[in-house]
């Protein structure tokens, strides 16, 4: 019996749905049964969801109350919880400002230590190996000015004249071996690394200055809480806190 069914099944052809007729091609693809099934399932799923919501709305208690009814507001079509304004006492504000000053001072001290370490590593060498300051040589006659040779005067080779540091003399070059980078590639690599370190040093110095100004501003605001009458003498800037003049009552 099973062999007969297999033979019968093998003779059956797969059912193929017809395609869109030629005169109806402007209407697009002809919907097949599998497409209709997907669309119908999606429609029924949405209808079930709507029916469940309607039933939930009908069964809802009209006297029901929960706090989000008054703690939320509608913004751009979405419910957003209202932010509560925390009321702080003057004593709490003073404590917070004291903690802020301590934190900023801690960060500023850490930055200053890093700055000192960078300075000790770099030895304040120029990044581009060019002298920023001028060196004046004095001679007695005009002939000496015309015949003046900087390399001969400094007792070094002409290639090292423009260096601001590490400028050995001829005797040193003759008698001692050269230590460190000597190839142009290595020298260029070290120069780039030195430039990056100097840029980091400059950024840390600026950060340390800003932290010092911030701590001064916080301290000024903290001091103002203890005073009743004050007159502003100078407005606050990005590099300095505001300056106030306090008026004291004279006793009669």
From TrEMBL:
Question: What's in the keyword line of the UniProt record?
Answer: Coiled coil, Nucleus, rRNA processing
Q: Which residue stretches, if any, does this entry annotate as coiled coil?
A: 74-101
Where does the record place the region Disordered?
1-26
Output the Gene Ontology cellular-component terms.
small-subunit processome
Record InterPro entries: SSU_processome_Utp11
Protein name from the UniProt record: U3 small nucleolar RNA-associated protein 11
Gene Ontology BP terms: rRNA processing
């Amino acid at each position: 019996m099973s062999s007969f069914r297999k033979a019968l099944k093998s003779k059956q052809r797969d059912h193929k749905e017809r395609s869109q007729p030629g005169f109806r091609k402007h209407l697009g693809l002809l919907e097949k049964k599998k497409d209709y099934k997907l669309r119908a399932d999606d429609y029924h799923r949405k209808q079930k969801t709507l029916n469940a919501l309607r039933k939930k709305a009908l069964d809802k208690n009209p006297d029901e109350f929960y706090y989000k009814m008054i703690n939320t507001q509608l913004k751009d079509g979405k419910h957003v919880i209202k932010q509560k304004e925390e009321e702080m006492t003057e004593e709490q504000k003073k404590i917070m400002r004291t903690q802020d000053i301590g934190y900023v001072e801690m960060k500023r001290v850490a930055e200053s230590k890093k700055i000192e370490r960078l300075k000790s590593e770099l030895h304040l060498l120029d990044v581009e190996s060019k002298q920023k300051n001028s060196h004046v040589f004095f001679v007695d006659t005009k002939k000496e000015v015309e015949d003046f040779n900087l390399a001969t005067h400094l007792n070094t080779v002409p290639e090292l004249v423009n260096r601001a540091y590490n400028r050995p003399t001829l005797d040193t070059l003759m008698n001692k071996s050269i230590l460190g980078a000597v190839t142009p590639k290595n020298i260029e690599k070290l120069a780039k690394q030195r430039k990056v370190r100097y840029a980091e040093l400059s950024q840390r110095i600026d950060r340390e200055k800003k932290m010092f100004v911030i701590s001064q501003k916080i301290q000024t605001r903290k001091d103002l809480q203890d005073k009743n009458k004050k007159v502003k003498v100078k407005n606050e800037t990005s590099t300095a806190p505001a300056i106030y003049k306090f008026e004291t009552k004279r006793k009669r």
